[in-house]
Amino acid sequence: RVVRGLKNGMQMDLPLTLTQLETEKRNDVIVLLDTGCTGSCINENTIVKLGLEQHHFENDIPVFNADGTLNAAGNITEYIRVKGQIGNHEEVLNLLITNLGKSDVFLGYEWLDFHNPKI
């Protein structure tokens, strides 16, 4: 498994409510629906700010930028499990932890392909 940014992706920002499974604490963030990102991720700074519990992968996941270079933040080693709600839709999300710059959360191509939302 790898996470890759694609050059020809389209994106859209939406409000997302994250609920911690362990504590039921709710936090509102902005999610970027991004067809150019192959995986769904959360910013490492958002993890710290919200105090979310992290889980470790047995094997690191390499991260590639849209231009094919390895991401400067390095491989993904951790993820979180949270309940995510956009409008009336709610589900448990496994979000990979990495540096997303100014964005809180990316929902990538695999999420969009599975749900096939009308946008």
From TrEMBL:
Protein name: Peptidase A2 domain-containing protein
Listed InterPro entries: Peptidase_aspartic_dom_sf
